[in-house]
Amino acid sequence: MEMRVDFHTHIIPEDIPDFTKRYGGGRWPVLEKTCSCGANIMVSGKVFREVTDQVWSPEKRIEDMDKEGVDLQVLSPIPVTFSYWAEPNAAEEMAHIQNDFIAETVKQYPSRFIGLGTVPLQDVDVSIREMERCMFQLGLKGIEIGTNVNGKNLDDPSFSGFFEMAEKWNVPLFVHPWETLGRERMPRHNFMYTVGMPSETALAAASLINGAVMEKYPTLKVCFAHGGGSFPYILPRLDQGWNVWPHIRKIQKPPSFYAQKFYFDSLNYDPVNLSYLVERFGYEKIVMGSDYPFLLREIPPGKVIDDTLGLTEEQKAAMLGGNALSFLNMNIKEALQK
């Protein structure tokens, strides 16, 4: 049976507390309603993003899913709420609120939603504690993490314990760009979203490989947002660097070997780009993702897969749903019985 599973969607509680009043500091995201069906996410007193009730209302989401032919959405937090910059216990409280909300939404509509959690990666011990709660108490199916933590790339030795436990517990990780490199050079044209995020994702993927994280934890499950950003297209250059600079190698094989372990969502908008992903990594490693409910999302979800020529119906079905369930250690029967 074919299912359409939108792996890449974001959600936030409608009544998220104002942590600025609770803990001080201006960087906490605050949801300020503008009307019954809209709000602004405010950061440091400025509008970070305008949103609609699609971002907090499961009923509105289901209405859109039915209209656009989506069976299941995988819910993950909005990256601005990661709060890696904050004191760990305060960030853990923010994570608790979001993870509880996502788990409750899944519990309320088990046949329509699957949940991913968030953890305060600035403190690995606290992160492991919250990851354990997400997976074994709340019933979430994975963890969304950012591409860096306060400027530290993901191969920083301080994160080893987190990746070790994620591998041990078979926790799928969804890597989403945030706090993009070079953002001080991108104040105009919304380049942070169109140029910065793909570049940031490429740096995160390359760091996990060249920093030997994927070699050290070979069964770690990792999926990258936005089709991996620019990473798939610079992979030959990473291989060339590995070839010509043997004295700085930390990995036994070229980067392209370890890249075969990665998953990617399909959100690159163009059948030519999707065909390249399939050719380089295999259709089994592509999961459909739309970035619902934001402006850059794909409408309808899965359009780029539907429009890509040369794919078999079996391959399309896998990318539209089966691969996402497999990545999340689920199967269609389990998803239907949730």
UniProtKB/TrEMBL annotation:
It comes from the Bacteria. GO terms for molecular function: aminocarboxymuconate-semialdehyde decarboxylase activity. It is an enzyme of class 4 (lyase). Residues 5-328 form the Amidohydrolase-related domain. The keyword Ubl conjugation does not apply. Pathway: Secondary metabolite metabolism; quinolate metabolism. Pfam families: Amidohydro_2. Keywords: Decarboxylase, Lyase, Metal-binding, Zinc. InterPro entries: ACMSD, Amidohydro-rel, Metal_Hydrolase. Its EC number is 4.1.1.45. The keyword ATP-binding does not apply. PANTHER family: 2-AMINO-3-CARBOXYLMUCONATE-6-SEMIALDEHYDE DECARBOXYLASE (PTHR21240), 2-AMINO-3-CARBOXYMUCONATE-6-SEMIALDEHYDE DECARBOXYLASE (PTHR21240:SF27). Belongs to the metallo-dependent hydrolases superfamily. ACMSD family. Monomer. This is 2-amino-3-carboxymuconate-6-semialdehyde decarboxylase. It comes from Siminovitchia thermophila. The lineage of its organism: Bacteria, Bacillati, Bacillota, Bacilli, Bacillales.
